[in-house]
Write a structure and sequence with these properties.
The protein has helices at about 1-10, 20-60, 60-95, 100-115, 120-135, 200-220, 250-270, and strands at about 140-145, 145-155, 160, 170, 180, 185-195, 220-235, 240-245. It has about 300 residues and is an alpha+beta fold. Helix 2 runs antiparallel to helix 3 and helix 6 crosses helix 7 (about 250-270).
């Protein structure tokens, strides 16, 4: 390998050149290399602008918006590497390096590196399959390897996941085996309401049905319902009435909070009692019928 590299530099034939010719030749080469750098930079910016314009049309379509945000930075990265690789080959050619032996050497070295970098190859192949199968996209909430969070970036080698505490998990794609996507399709909002045994059950259900209709009209995030299913349990401290609704992705928790808040306010207004744990203490006082010294 070192013999080939030495042979490449011998091909420059510096000794056969006069000093003046050498200076002029290298000045011309340096200017050419500078121009190559400028052209490569311009090509990179132009390519990024074309990519941005292309994906701007995609983001106008809501179903394709997440996929566009996923692929846009990835394609920019590939374009940057491609431009840099081609520019490097042209610069080496300007320096007088013969590319054929160099590429052959790089091919042999690449095979050797490939055997030692099987994990890296597996990460890239898995990342490519994840993108092709569209298992998740930037902005999706997923569960992978016991981590739950929002996808911030999907690359060919790693996936970056931000959990709800703010920690950023960088997961190699080769380690991803099972993925649970929490935002594909409608989500379920579920609220269990407890009323006391002394309350008017039919009146409580009627109030919940009226409140559910108002919530459906006020919140466009609700796709279906809310629906009062009825009594689901006779608990120790009260009767359980269940309400369910279908919402847009990641909106189920907001709807559950709004439902609970509205139910508490309406029950207070209608004097419907919500049970809570109580403890009653009985203190029995026994009269001391025996006088001191008796018995």
């Amino acid at each position: 390998m070192f013999d080939r590299i030495n042979q490449l530099f011998r091909n420059l034939n510096w000794e056969a050149m006069e000093w003046e010719q050498l200076i002029l030749a290298w000045t011309e080469r340096l200017l050419t290399i500078l121009i190559i750098f400028i052209i490569a930079r311009l090509l990179q910016k132009a390519g990024n602008r074309v990519i941005d314009e292309y994906f701007k049309k995609k983001t106008a379509d809501p179903p394709k918006e997440k996929k566009a945000h996923t692929l846009q930075p990835l394609i920019k990265q590939i374009w940057r590497y491609l431009v840099a690789f081609v520019a490097l080959l042209i610069i080496l050619d300007q320096l007088g390096v013969q590319l054929a032996p160099l590429l052959a050497t790089a091919g042999v070295a690449g095979i050797a590196i490939g055997f030692g970098a099987q994990r890296l190859v597996r990460d890239i192949i898995t990342g490519f399959l994840l993108l092709m199968e569209d298992q998740y996209a930037v902005g999706d909430m997923i569960t992978v390897n016991n981590y739950v969070g929002i996808v911030e970036e999907v690359g060919l080698r790693v996936t970056k996941l931000r959990d709800f505490s703010g920690d950023l998990h960088i997961i190699p794609n080769g380690n991803i085996e099972n993925v649970t996507n929490h935002v594909r399709g409608e989500m379920r909002a579920l609220v269990d309401v407890r009323v006391s045994y002394e309350a008017d059950l039919d009146r409580a259900i009627q109030i919940l049905e009226e409140l559910s209709a108002e919530m459906a009209a006020q919140h466009p995030e609700i796709v279906d319902g809310p629906t009062v299913l009825g009594v689901t349990d006779l608990a120790e401290s009260g009767i359980v009435i269940r309400i369910v609704a279908r919402t847009e992705p990641l909106k189920q928790w907001q709807i559950e909070r709004e439902l609970r808040r509205a139910i508490k306010k309406r029950f207070d207004h209608e004097n419907i009692e919500i049970p809570y744990p109580r403890r009653v203490l009985y203190h029995r006082r026994e009269e001391n019928k025996q006088q001191t010294g008796e018995g």
